[in-house]
Amino acid sequence: MLLLTLLRHARTESARDGQEDWHRELEPRGQRDAPEMARRLRDRGLTPKLIIASPAVRAITTATLVARELGLPKDKVVEDERLYLASPNAMLQVIKERGGGASPLMIVGHNPGISELADKLSAERSLDNMPTCGAYTLEFDLRDWSQIEPATGFNAQFDYPGQI
């Protein structure tokens, strides 16, 4: 049994004049939400063994804040450029290639792809839009991530900042 958490990056500042999307940083709320979501995941026994993140500033910062809160070593956070504004299929390929047997595995990415991937992987429920710093966790009856296929995830857990 493997666990996958899809995490949308935390709330981000608006782009400044001339600023590239890649360089947008987290706003103060995002800097608070990422550690809070990490604590919630830890409380549910969902501390990732590996985090694969988009290297865009907002995503890798979110991943780093989560890892720091959970006490994960720096080598457990890896960047993959293919996750930047990626389609669900591109993200799925990253999981297949880089996930190995890590469980829980966390992917930190961007909308709309991260929400679409969550919806695509779940066999039980649909997900329209994951809010910033939203975490969607699914279980898979697999030995390693190379076997992951659409609509095979079950026991979905969904949490996001502000959820009561």
Structure description:
By secondary structure, the chain is α/β, with parallel strands linked by helices. The chain has one domain: Phosphoglycerate mutase-like (Rossmann fold, 3-Layer(aba) Sandwich), CATH 3.40.50.1240. Helix content is 30%, strand content 19%. The protein contains 4 helices and 6 strands. The chain has a 6-stranded mixed sheet with strand order 3-2-4-1-5-6, sandwiched between helices. Helix 1 crosses helix 2 (57-70) and helix 3 (88-98) packs across helix 4 (113-121). The radius of gyration is 14 Å and the shape is globular.
Please render the helix and strand layout as text.
Elements: E1 2-8, H1 28-43, E2 50-53, H2 57-70, E3 77-79, H3 88-98, E4 105-109, H4 113-121, E5 135-140, E6 154-159
Parallel strand pairs: 1-4, 2-3, 2-4
Antiparallel strand pairs: 1-5, 5-6
Helix pairs in contact: 1-2, 3-4
Task: Give a quick precis of the structure.
The protein has 164 residues and is α/β, with parallel strands linked by helices.
Helix and strand run: EHEHEHEHEE
Describe the main β-sheet briefly: 6 strands, mixed
At the first level of CATH, the class is Alpha Beta
Shape: globular
Number of separate structural domains: 1
Q: Which superfamily, in CATH terms, is the homologous superfamily?
A: Phosphoglycerate mutase-like
CATH fold-level label: Rossmann fold
Helical content class: 25-40%
End-to-end separation in angstroms reads 29 Å
Q: Strand order within the widest sheet?
A: 3-2-4-1-5-6
Number of helical elements: 4
Q: What is the CATH architecture annotation?
A: 3-Layer(aba) Sandwich
Please report the total strand number as a whole number: 6
Structural class: alpha/beta
Radius of gyration computed on alpha carbons: 14 Å
Low-confidence stretches: none
